[in-house]
Amino acid sequence: MRENARLLSRALGLATTMALIPAGALAAPAAPNSDIPPWRDLATVKRATAAYHDVTRAEADGFVRTSECLPEKGLHYLRSVADSAEDLDLTRPNVLVYEPYPDGGLRLLGVEYASRTPGEFLGQELEPSSVVPYYLLHVWVWDEEADADDIFAADNPRITCGT
């Protein structure tokens, strides 16, 4: 009986983790010897940011809107910027990225990790921003259409800002 409970617990944990991975990512086959995204870490990011689908929760946690919506970039809410890549925290992204709905609501599509210095995070190099003096890693963890090829892309062509 105890073994059955343990197996059931493992199966539920795996099912929960799989449900948190972007659907499009599961459909993308991994090429041999390729850099496979860290799915467990991405599931952790989703669990840590699930409450921020409600932007008022994000604001209550210190995120402040810093931009208007730009096509392929989205609308940004910033909480902080890390001094270095080593200071980044998987469960505390620095930026939340939203896309506005036609009715004025916002849809959370991804997060950004921001550092004042270059470095690596989640197995990816932080990219210098052309707009702000930071190094960034975008993670389109809430975009159901994101796949292994674009989960870390700097731009998201699915963000249209209603245009």
Domain count: 1
Fraction of helical residues: 25-40%
Q: What spatial order of strands do you see in the largest sheet? A: 1-2-3-4-8-7
Span of the ends, CA to CA: 57 Å
Give a count of the beta strands, DSSP E runs of length 2 or more: 8
Can you walk me through this structure?
- Residues 1-27 form the signal peptide.
- Keywords: Signal.
- This protein has 163 residues and is an alpha+beta fold.
- It has one domain.
- It is 25% helix and 20% strand.
- It contains four helices and eight strands, in the order H-H-H-H-E-E-E-E-E-E-E-E.
- The chain has helices at 2-20, 23-27, 39-49, 55-60, and strands at 64-65, 75-78, 95-100, 106-115, 120-121, 124-125, 127-128, 135-139.
- Strands 1-2-3-4-8-7 form a six-stranded antiparallel β-sheet. The protein has a two-stranded antiparallel ribbon with strand order 5-6.
- The longest helix has 19 residues, at 2-20.
Characteristics of this structure?
163 residues, alpha+beta, six-stranded antiparallel β-sheet, two-stranded antiparallel sheet, 4 helices, 8 strands, 25% helix, disordered N terminus, signal
Compact description:
The chain has one domain (2-139). The chain is 25% helix and 20% strand. The protein has 4 helices and 8 strands.
